[in-house]
Amino acid sequence: MQPKPPRPTGVTILAVLAILGALGLLFSGAALIGLGLLLGTLAATVDITNAINNAGYPGLSSLGVGTISALIIALGAVFAILGILYLAVGIGFFGGKRWAWTLGVIVSVIGIVLAIVQLAFGNYGSILSLIISLLIVYYLMRPHVKTFFGKGTLMASPATTPGTGSSKP
Questions:
Q1: DSSP codes, 137-169
Q2: How many other CB atoms sit within 10 Å of the CB of residue 113?
Q3: Backbone φ, ψ for residue 125 (5° rounding)
């Protein structure tokens, strides 16, 4: 069994960014779930529907407070699940786990698809997200990165003959 190569610096950076993103997503998810629960409990005591209508969102107020509260809780749950997913990717990247490489590629490809959909609907700010996701997929496909995750093979230096340590055949 060959020894595991050292962790590339880029993988360390991606791991730290994934964990930071996970913390943000987990916090956002918890905040949205709390807001949805609070909105649901306040619906009985405050006329929220009229407040939403007066704020200039008559279409939203027609949904009803219970539906709005459920949608906010569902969105919070999606954020929390994504946060857990990113946390797993970050921890797996630090450990060089094979599944983390696969999960990192899947998450990046999902990011590419979402950015393209956003671009199609006119959100031109998502071009940065598209570029970052493309760069992450490109980096994860690099031979030395795949080797670190156990997805590729270590390549011997062409200057030496294996087993001899010499450049002479």
A1: HHHHTSHHHHHHTTSS-PPPPTTSBTTTTBS--
A2: 12
A3: -70, -20
- Note the pTM of the prediction, 2 decimals: 0.76
- The CA distance from 73 to 31, in Å, is 9
Sequential pLDDT tens for the chain (169 residues): 567 788 999 999 999 999 999 999 999 999 999 999 988 777 655 577 777 778 887 777 667 777 888 899 999 999 999 899 999 999 999 999 999 999 999 989 988 999 999 999 998 989 999 999 999 999 999 999 999 998 877 655 555 445 555 455 5
Tokens, residue 81? 């699940």
